[in-house]
Amino acid sequence: MDAIHSPGRPDSHTSKGSKEDPMALNTLPTVSASHNENAAHHGDPIAATSSFEMRKTTSDMRNTRGMLGLHPQAPIDEEHDLAEQQDWWWAKVRIALREPFAEFFGTMILVLFGDGAVAQVLLSAGQKSAPGGDGYGNYQSINWGWGLGVMLGIYVAGDSGAYLNPAITFTNCVLRKLPWRRFPIYLLAQFLGGFVAGPGIRTVPPSPTATAGIFCTYPQPFDTKSGQFFDEFIASAILMFVIYALKDDSNKGQFSASGAWFPLAMFFLIFGIGACFGWQTGYAINLARDFGPRLMSYAVGYGHEVWSAGGYYFWIPIVAPFCGCLFGGILYDVFLYTGPDSLMNQPWFGLKDLARPKAAIMERVEKQKAEGLV
Question: Where does this protein have compositionally biased stretches of type Basic and acidic residues (predicted)?
């Protein structure tokens, strides 16, 4: 964009002392004020007037987005931001809630593909018309479905950070200074995305004709309560540890799975967790992927057994992913991560802040404001 600015007129966004906006996108070249001043000087009043009347719609929504805990500047292409169509009411709603909408639809795509794979395998079991005469798919088909769902969900939710999992959002708030103010609205968007993606005979495991497992996870009958918890805990810890490794450009050596390769790497990560660690509990590893569809299955008539099955197993996919993801994130940051943005790289691993929580919170908020994060 510097090429279209007049000499000697520094761009206000890149002036000396300013910091790069961490949420800024790579935007297309757009008309700048200096260009239109030149247009007016050369006798083109229409170009000058029309451009000065235009304003960024995101500027009008900064206060609203701030109240929601989002970054004041919406992640939108600058050229689109200046367009006329952004001035009508729905465009403003879309700008104000751009990241929550992205998390909602990303999570919805994740659950649609995953639950769709489970449904196809379960409901087609024994179908003689299928190739091989024994249904359309097997356990590996389910792993492929969930892996594809995660990969495509990440592409859908790119502008929000594509967390798609409350436990991952929570871990980034604790360890990587993601503003806590974003956690509630991200959690709500992720939960609702899983809820709407969820729904015969409505039966719950361990019934041999159960179909409730299409929507959410249920443990194997032999699995103990501690076994159920640590199955989900370990899978969630692996998930978070590897995600941090994939996103850490300072530790890639000769390889890189970040950037454009990250969604594909996540596909293989989810497929691997399912293939190697998923049988005993169904590898929920995500509150939004399990609790939302479970609530939907209860609403459409599966009964109270969706809560009582497996010895009231339903709470484990809610709690264990938060514990496991936090543990996996701490493990990576303590031993491998060297960046300054981690709590684990502060003196005494940030434990001194526990003695003065109010001051620590205020310092963190002030720093985030200075960096333009909130």
Answer: 8-22
Question: Can you read off the two tokens belonging to residue 342?
Answer: 């981690």
Average pLDDT, the chain: 80
In this prediction the pTM is 0.75
345 close to 339: Cβ distance less than 8 angstroms: yes
Q: What is the domain count for the chain? A: 1
Q: Is 16 buried (19+), middle (13-18) or exposed (0-12) by CB count in 10 A?
A: exposed
Three-state DSSP at 70 gives coil
Three-class SS of 215-282: CCCCCCCCCCHHHHHHHHHHHHHHHHHHHHHHHCHHHCCCCCCCHHHHHHHHHHHHHHHHHHHCCCCC
- Look at residue 356 in the predicted model and tell me its pLDDT: 82
Half-sphere exposure of 345 (CA within 13 A, CB side): 14
Please enumerate, as own/partner, the contacts of 356-360 that have beta carbons within 8 Å and a separation of 24 or more.
none
Domain membership flag for residue 327: yes
Q: How far apart are the first and last CA of the chain?
A: 26
pLDDT in tens, 97-147: 999 999 999 999 999 999 989 988 888 887 777 777 778 888 999 999 999
Q: Classify residue 329: in a domain, yes or no.
A: yes
Q: What residue ranges of the chain have pLDDT lower than 70? A: 1-58, 83-86, 199-203, 209, 252-257
Q: Which domain holds residue 333?
A: 103-341
The CATH number of the domain holding residue 189 is 1.20.1080.10
Angle at which helix 287-297 crosses helix 316-335, to 10 degrees, equals: 170
Q: Is 261 within a domain?
A: yes
